[in-house]
Amino acid sequence: MAPLTAEGSNSSDYFVDDDPDFLQALCEVKLPGDLSQKADEKPQSDEPVRHATQSLKRGRDPESEDERDTSRARHNVLASIDEDEEKSRYLKDDVYGAATFGGFGEYMSRKRAKLQVQNADIAEEGQALSTIFRGLQIYINGHTTPSVQELRKLIVQHGGIFHAYLVKKSLVTHILTCSLTPAKVKEFQHMKVVRPDWLVDSAKAGVLLPWQDYIFKVNERVEDLQGKQVAQKSLLNSYVPTYKSPSISNVAPHHPGPQIAQSEPPKNFSQDSNDSLVANVSSLSSHLSNAGSQPEEPHTPAKPKPSLDSPSTPGRPIYTTDPVSPEQANHVPGYTSHKSNPNAERAMQDPAWRAAHTSVAPDFIEGYYRNSRLHHLSTWKAELKNLVAEAQERADSGTGLGGDRPRLEEVDGVREGVGAVEDMAVRKIVRENMGGKGPGWSSTRGGGPDDNVSMRNAQLVMRSPSKKGKEKERAGDPVDDKGRIIMHCDFDSFFVSAGLVDRPHLRGKPVVVCHSQGAQGGQASTSEIASASYEARKFGIKAGMSLQQARKLCPQIITMPYEFQRYKQFSLQFYTILMSHADDLQAVSVDEALIDVTSSVQRIQTEISQSQNSSASPIDPAKQFAEAIRAQVRRATGCEVSIGIAHNIMLARVASRRAKPAGSYHILPADAMDALAPLDIDNLHGFGHATRQKAEEKLGATNLGELAKMSKGVLCDALGKSTGETLFKAIRGIDERKLESDKPRKSVSCDINYGIRFENNEQAEAFVYQLAEEVSRRLGSIDMKGRSLTVKVMKRDPSAPVEAPKFMGHGLCETFTKQIQLVAPGGRATNDEKIVGEHAWRLLKGFGFDPKELRGIGIQVQKLEKASGHAEVEQGQAVLPFKPVESAKEKAGVGQNDKPLNAVVPPKINVLPPSSPDVQELPPPAHAQTSKTSHDLPAFSQIDRSVFDALPEDIRKELEAEYKRRSITPDPLPAIPAKRVRFASLAPADVFPKVKITVKGTNVKRITQQLAPRGRSSISPQKTALFKKRDIPFKVNVSEEELRKLGLDPDVFAMLPRNIQREQVAAARFQKSGKIGVTFGGPRRVLKPIPRLLPRTRPKYVPPPPPQANFPKPPTLKQPGKKKGEKLYFSETDDVQNVIEKWVMAFLEHPPNKQDVGFFARYLVQCVDNTRSTDSGLERAIAVAKWWLVLLRRHFGVWEHASELDVGELQRDQHWTSEGVGRAWWEAFRDVKGQMDTVARRKYGGCLSLR
Amino acid sequence: MLDETPLSFNQAVRGIAEFIEVAIHTILYVRQVYPAEVFVRRKKYNTPVFQSRHPALNEYISGAVKAVADELVHGNVDKVIVVIKDKEDVALERFIFAVQNMIQVESYNRETGVQGAISAPVLGQYFRSFLIKLSMLEAQLGQLGLGDAVLTPPMIQENISFAVVIELRDDKAPSSIDGKEPPPWVPATVQHTTTGTSDKAELHMLKAVDTGIINLSLAVQESEHKFSTEKESKTAAISKAKERAL
To answer: CA of A745, closest CA in chain B: separation in Å?
Structure first.
């Protein structure tokens, strides 16, 4: 810990408190190398800085300062300067005078001067080791390794000038940095920005090396260089120099120096110097603590503590041959025995080898998938899942398979020393399960055991066709969760035991399965062990180790090759047996499955209880049943299976672990806690290394028994909510997961991270297209199309060596992913390789990585949907034949069943090794390719164009003709006009006919569509039956005799196009057979649209009428007109007011007529009444009433408020007095007003105001 | 020239709601519910109006009017009443916007012009006259300062507040009860409503318009309480003046 932090830190604090012993040791120790002084000088060089700044800045009083100095002087054994004297000199000096207030500029310039004084001091003390840096003026930016102090010393000691501040750019010749911010990158773009190892290496070499070799490259990873590494890793073993010279990463050799470094890693300059730097400190620190590793063996990993198997040690080794992250790499024992795989490095030197074996090779992907174990395993898993789902579907729909499949016999051989009754019961159920609907896997595939290792042709049959859907069963299941019986069936070291079937002589010996055979690969083989026998496991060998690691553990280890064919066969047999017994099955992998056998076990139980009246022997029927299954599998495959039984998945897995090897184990619900207690977190399925580490760090325990004591909250806090919750339940034996037998496939992907070594973008692009082809093939094989595409890119970690420790592996990598929508023309989902390739390449290009740095590429297609069915229809509808050529071609690419050889023409691969002498040398491999064409012509896209062009003309023409014949796609990409020209010049007529063919294919459809009746009935059943089969290509293979029999002229028939041939034959056969059907050649039946019940002419759509405004008729005042019988209706306010005025004026001398008043009141009330009038009526009534009031006031104002009590004379001599008339009017008015108020009150309450 | 296109149902609803909002601001200004400084003079319907510039008040008003508009669309509203009340929460004046849905319009027809209905500019002119009448209301009703303005202590005004009340047609309930938000309407105090009005209250009809779609009228009702308090304060003021005179 100490050495590196000191090394990487620029804080002098570490040194102040060191005890004298250490300093003593520091003096005495003899250090190798030129730079030995550095460590000594560090404290010293730092002291003055601090001292000076302190005394000046803070203005401490001299006394305490002195005190401090003396005390420090005591400590500082090495101090060569008398501090007091020095100080007094400082203060006299102008530079060290007190700063004036506000004089910041002065302060800075002084500081610079002081720093230069210090530099001079360093130079003096260091006795100027050399002058190789003379003339260099160097500024250091940001954090560097080695630290700024180191570098400064280095610079000054070797005659250079160190600038602490970048004041004048013209002054500085070079900038040293390990990482730059983007802004700085821009700022420094015209300067010489160099990595610090330039100086380190130069000092080492004793000459100034050309700085161009050490130019700082921006794309180096920033985070790693900013101290993270230093803080995180204390061990030298993982201390990979981050500042490799760029020429190392460049395979093309043009620098003599770095090339040496490449082939002889230990003498690598950068590493060496780095070691020496580190060694200085670490060897010293070994006096203090033993924690540091020994400088003598900087590359051996510190053994992750000896207590490997104790469950609570953090540094557990991970076994993998090709770790991705440095953290992981740290845990792999023996991983870093080579920084870089020497074999690979040597091999990569050879361009020919490179061209043949890396991702650049044309058949690379093919070969990769042929040999990749993981690939097989994953595809099998997917296929098995499909099979299971299909079987389930069939079981659900109740259609079993025919009885022609080979029955697995001899079920009765179950003999496991079980009591007679139980035995009988178990046997009975087993027989029942096997018989009747019967198990079976039918290998419909006619072809022998060729290298087709796909399982696709097999079928599994579900036992219980009576079951209608799992959901239903689950919903109405009387069995509660504890009563459920889940079995986890797992082969014991599947690959090994499968291999041992043929090699009985190897039984009982440590055997592993891996690619590398015998002594091949030698001691350094990085071949990964896929499976190890139990004997081998005793040596500590585990799956995932490299052979080389295994050999170290057990030198006499025996290797076996993979036998994929056999694995497949066994796996299918295994699944067949399980399927026959299971209510439900989840395919976990080829050799592992989860089954739900609740019903079978229940039946056994009832069987037992029936035959034996509750026997005293508490024999576990589930275990018996498991043994029976095991026996069955053993008989079928000769391999042992272990079965764990429990009431849920998690416990079943735990149980199977206990059952191994070759046994079965039942964890009863009551025992769950006890069974789990001794286990470790990562023994549980779904909890891995990361969780374990977290638990270790945060909870201090990884043992389930200990964790069981913790509350759920604590677990959730430490591990995250969902993980914590799951763990909490898991510890208590609770697992609510259901078997997933019908999980639909969510994505299809292709991932290659082995042997990816590109030299340029063209190669990468070509590779991506090939990968896309593979993806689209896989999509096609499951009949799916995707809508989304993800590209995963692994890029070499800047700290990793160019060649990974594993041979052609990916080594330490940074992983990037990007997602994009996968859009085919028309926005449909697609599985077209060209479109997939285009999208993938666009994404990869978007990353902007150096193709040399790529170590792995993966393409994944998600959002799958079924491709079949509607797609065809869509095609015909969506794409017109006269569309641009591109779309026509794409249609052909999608629709046709045979794989288009050349749907896409990706850029050709050009392997042009730098050293390649000339083209003449290349024809041999090209010939090899062409000679292969007789068996299998490589895809046109994979042909090296330069080679192709170099071929003799006749061969070339032949090849071209062959490709054209094969090619279904008519036209090359318009994007590559050069190629088009070539074709056109060679065979101009050829491009066209093919287009015509495609058009014709669709044309038939179009014609028939036009023939078909219009309207809805065009989707008549006849029509679909008629045209559906059109696309299935079959050879019209009819003998002449038959043709004659059918009444067809063979000669004419032969001339017909194939489509019509087919139609003719079919029609003739139909006629002959006398069946009623669709005829082609016979009298044309007129197809009429089916008459509809509804009248032909639909009522035309009439828009609903617009709403009509409603104006209720305003109440009117009727008046007799001037003429006789004429009636006038007054509704407007003014008119009514006029009428009133006339009325009032007419009755000035007489009290108003009662009828008139009533008539008028009716009108006003009608106006006021909102049921008969609107509010404007009210408004009018008020206006009228107001006018009436005005008139009355004008004429009879005196009498308005006259009291009722002192009524005067109303009538005099038959004449009304004015008082009488006035009172009468007011009375009438109040009466009317009262009526109005009553009506208005209904709506508004209160009364009307006429104010 | 004026646009002769008849109003659509939605236009009518929007127009009326907008007018009510403008009118509420004007009422608050005219009746001095809030100090005049709060208001800023603007132009609407070609007439000067006063708008509050207090954001909280504006928000309340627009919220209330929006709720009114929601109800208007359903045709359930009978009256929208702006109640001016005193510190005891007793209504002094009610500004009654009586609406009457004259036609039922199907939802697909809400944006089509209603044949025979008045046009938007005409409605605007009507609104203008509404507002003019409103602003002249003081002449008719006197200052809401309870009697003699000179003698009224200004603090009384500070205790005046207002509320927006809607009265629905019989048997109708506010429609916007969707459970999510608290409903905009709460049951009103009876005294604030027209049914709670005593017979002595006086109704001044300001203006009415028949749009043919939704008819609108604005009336002001002075409550009996107002008269009684006015009388009281008047007598009090008179006696005070008398005292002073003595």
So the answer is: 40
